[in-house]
Amino acid sequence: MATGDKYKHLIGSKFNRLTIQGEFIIKGKQIHTKVQCECGNIKYSPLGNVLKGRATSCGCFRKELSRNVLTTHGLYRCPEYHVWQNIKRRCYDKTNKNYSTYGGRGIRMYSKWINDFALFRKDVGAKPSKLHSLDRIKVNGNYTPKNCRWATQQEQCNNKRVNKIIFYKREKYTVAEFARKLNINYFSLYHRISNGWEVDDIVNTPIGGKIKKKD
Q1: What is the pLDDT of residues 67-81, one digit of tens each?
Q2: CB count in 10 Å sphere of residue 84
Q3: Closest CA relative to residue 60, chosen from 36, 27, 32, 30
Q4: For the chain, give me the number of helices (H) and strands (E)?
């Protein structure tokens, strides 16, 4: 008896959210069949999983359950939810403008956080204030429970992947500390350092100005 004939009587039968459409195909050691979900999506699923209840939908049920949990507790609106989303985008979405700095460098998110916002929020805690963002303690490390903390921009600047020690008048400063001493923007100072400016030129040249040529 052909495979299709053996299971033909199941066509039209509904199991949870899935209705068997037919087209029974052998893939490896399993029989796969075409099913249609209540939401309208059509996919191929192992027949055994459908019959035994291991496959209950096309995946929409899990998404709805997660959405309901988040909506019930108002978590869609909480700042930690947007942080969680943004981390995933810059780690895994190649179209994200920040992907090259994160996912492109091999930075990943703790696997148990990827599909579980509630666990992420439990591990990192509530965002202390609007001035805080999630920072990686080891800047070349992944987003994991032990490597993440809420930090202000000032704290994060001291933890930059490339941080240079500046010596000025027998004192030493990080880029962030020197920016505060000069009362200029951190990134303006960092840009000057990256372009090879001498310390005296940095101190004596107003923001937006150019280095004066020396005789």
Answers
A1: 555 554 555 567 888
A2: 23
A3: 36
A4: 9, 8
